[in-house]
Amino acid sequence: MRFSTTRFMKIDLAGAPKFGAELQALTSLLGTVADEPKHRCVLITHVLDTAVAYVEAVNNVFPVVRIVAIPYSASPSAVRTLRSRGFNVIVPASIPEIFTESEKQVTEALQESQVPLLVQEVGGYLAHASAKLSTFSHFLGVVEDTNNGHWLYESTGPHPIPVLSMAQSPLKSIEDSIIGDAVLFSIERILREDFAAICQGMRCAVIGFGKIGRSTAVALKGREAVVSIYDINPSIDISAKVEGFFPMPLHDLLPTSDLVVGCTGQTSIRLVDMPFIKDGAILASASSKAIEFALSDFGRECTVEKFSDIIWRYSQYNGKKFYVLLKGTPVNFRDGSILGTILDMIYCELFLCMREVAARKAPLGLSKSPPPIQEEVAKAWLKHHSDDFIRAMDDKVWEYPDSLKLGLPKF
Ligand SMILES: NC(=O)c1ccc[n+]([C@@H]2O[C@H](COP(=O)([O-])OP(=O)(O)OC[C@H]3O[C@@H](n4cnc5c(N)ncnc54)[C@H](O)[C@@H]3O)[C@@H](O)[C@H]2O)c1
Predict the structure, then answer these.
(1) Measured from the CA of 212, which atom of ligand 1 is nearest?
(2) For the domain 177-329, what is the CATH code?
(3) Mean pLDDT of all residues in the chain?
(4) pLDDT value of position 353
(5) Whether the predicted pLDDT of 76 surpasses 50
(6) Distance in Å, CA 283 to ligand 1 centroid
(7) Which atom of ligand 1 is found nearest the CA of 150?
(8) Residue 58 Cα to ligand 1 middle (Å)
(9) What is the pLDDT of residues 144-159, one digit of tens each?
(10) What's the pTM value of the predicted model, to 2 decimals?
(11) Atom 40, ligand 1: which residue's CA is nearest?
(12) Which of 31, 191, 198, 407, by CA, is between 20 and 30 Å from 111?
C-alpha cells in the first residue's frame, strides 16, 4: 500500500497556540491513511487550547464536520480560534445537554451526506444512541478516549456499532499517571487564591485509588500533605497501605479531612455520607462530568451559596459548611489539564483508533485498542521526542515485539 507522505505538510500550525503545536508524532502518522476516500468525523471533546492543533491535524485526514465541546473544559480562546478557522463548534449549556446535542449533531451530519462518518468522543455521550446510529449504513463507529465513557458503553451494551476504546490502553495509563499533578496544580492555585491556604500539612482524603486516585495521592504526598485514601475495593485498600497511603473507612476518613478529592468516576460521596464531611472541608473532583458528589441531593439538604466564581458553599442545617470546587467537575480542566509531549502520544492513539474504525477493522460492540496500535504509537513518539532513541535506530525497540525473540534460548 502506498501512503501519502506529503499531506502533513499542508497543516498550518503557525497560528496555533504554542503549547498545542508540538504534535510531530501525530503529524508523522497522518500519511498512514490512504488519501481517498476521505471519511468525515465528528469530535465530541475537550476544546482546550491544546486541542486546536489536534483538530486541525485530524481535519486533514478525516474532515471534521462538527465539534461538540464539553462545556466545563471549553476554553473560550480555543472555541474562538476554531470557529475563526471555519470549524462548526457547538458548546452545550450543561452536561446533560452534551448527550442530547451529541446525538442530534451526529444524526444531522449523517443525514446531510452519504460520505461515511466516524466519531471520536470522551465520555460515552453516544452510548444511548448506538441503535439509532446503526440504522445509517454509512456510520462507521465511535472511538472512545475515557474510562468513564468506556464504562458507560459497557453498561449500556451490546452495541450494534463498533466502539473502539483506548481508555484502558497501557499508553493511556501513562497519561493517567501525570493527571494527579495537573489536578494538584489546579487545587493548589484555588487553595492559595481563594482560601489563602497551602497543601503542606493539610489532611487530605483521596476517594478511589485507581489510576487517577494513585496519581493524585502521589502528587499530594509530594506537596507534604497528609494523605489517606478510601477505595470501595478491599484489595485496593491493601495495595494503598503498602504504598504508604493509609486507607480508612469512609465515615472515619471524612470527619478528619480538610480536602476530599474524588477520583472514582462514580458518585463516591452520597447524601448518607454528607453528615460525616468535616466542617469547612473542600471537595474537588479529579474524575468526570459532575459525577463524584451527589450535589443535587446535597442541595436539597443545604443552603447553597456562590462563594466565588468557582466555589460553592454548602451550609447544612446543623451549621456545618463545606465547599465544592467548579460545581463538582474535574478541577484540572481549569488550567489546561496536561501539557507537553504526552499529549502527542494520546492524540496519536486516538488517531490510529480512528484509522482502524474508518477502515472498518474494529469489531461490532465495545472493544479495546489493540497492542499493535500502541506499538506503532510508541515508536512514532520515541522517533520524535527522544533524541537518545533517534540516535539509536539499530536498537531492539524498533523491531518490538519481533525483537523479543532475539533473547530466546536457541534449541
Ligand atoms: N481529570 C482527568 O483529566 C481525568 C483523566 C483520566 C480519567 N479521568 C476519569 O477519572 C475517573 C477514574 O478513572 P481511573 O482510570 O482512575 O479508574 P480506575 O478504574 O483505575 O479507578 C477507579 C477506582 O475507584 C474505585 N471506586 C469505584 N467506586 C467507588 C466508590 N463509590 N467509592 C470508593 N472507591 C470507588 C474503584 O475500586 C477503583 O479502584 C474516571 O471517571 C475517568 O474517566 C479523569
Answers:
(1) 16
(2) 3.40.50.720
(3) 93
(4) 98
(5) yes
(6) 16
(7) 43
(8) 28
(9) 999 999 999 999 999 9
(10) 0.91
(11) 265
(12) 31
Binning pLDDT at 50, 70 and 90, where does residue 385 land?
very high
Mean pLDDT for 322-346 is 94
Q: How confident is the model at residue 138, as a pLDDT? A: 98
CA angle 348, 168, 20 (to 5 degrees): 30
328-197-72 Cα angle (round to 5) = 25
Q: Tens digits of per-residue pLDDT, 187-217?
A: 999 999 999 999 999 999 999 999 999 999 9
Query: How far apart, in Å, are the Cα atoms of 312 and each of 145, 309, 327?
Result: 30, 8, 7
Q: Assess whether the C-beta atom of 147 lies below 6 angstroms from ligand 1.
A: yes
Give residue 171 CA to ligand 1 midpoint distance, Å.
17
286 pocket-lining for ligand 1 (C-beta < 6 Å): yes
CATH annotation of 7-168+337-398? 3.40.50.1480
| Structural domain boundaries in the chain | 7-168+337-398, 177-329
Confidence of residue 21 (pLDDT cuts 50, 70, 90): low
Residue owning grid cell 458503553? 153
At residue 19, does pLDDT exceed 90?
Answer: no
- The grid coordinates of residue 120 equal 471520536
Q: How far apart are the C-alpha atoms of 379 and 156, rounded to whole Å?
A: 35
CA dist 121 to 19, 42, 162, 166, Å? 22, 8, 13, 11
Closest protein CA for atom 39 of ligand 1: 210
**Ligand 1, from 287, 332, 342, 368: best to mutate by most atoms within 8 Å of Cβ?**
287
Indicate which atom in ligand 1 lies nearest the CA of residue 149. Answer: 43
Q: Which atom of ligand 1 is nearest to the CA of 209?
A: 39
Equal CATH topology for 7-168+337-398 and 177-329: yes
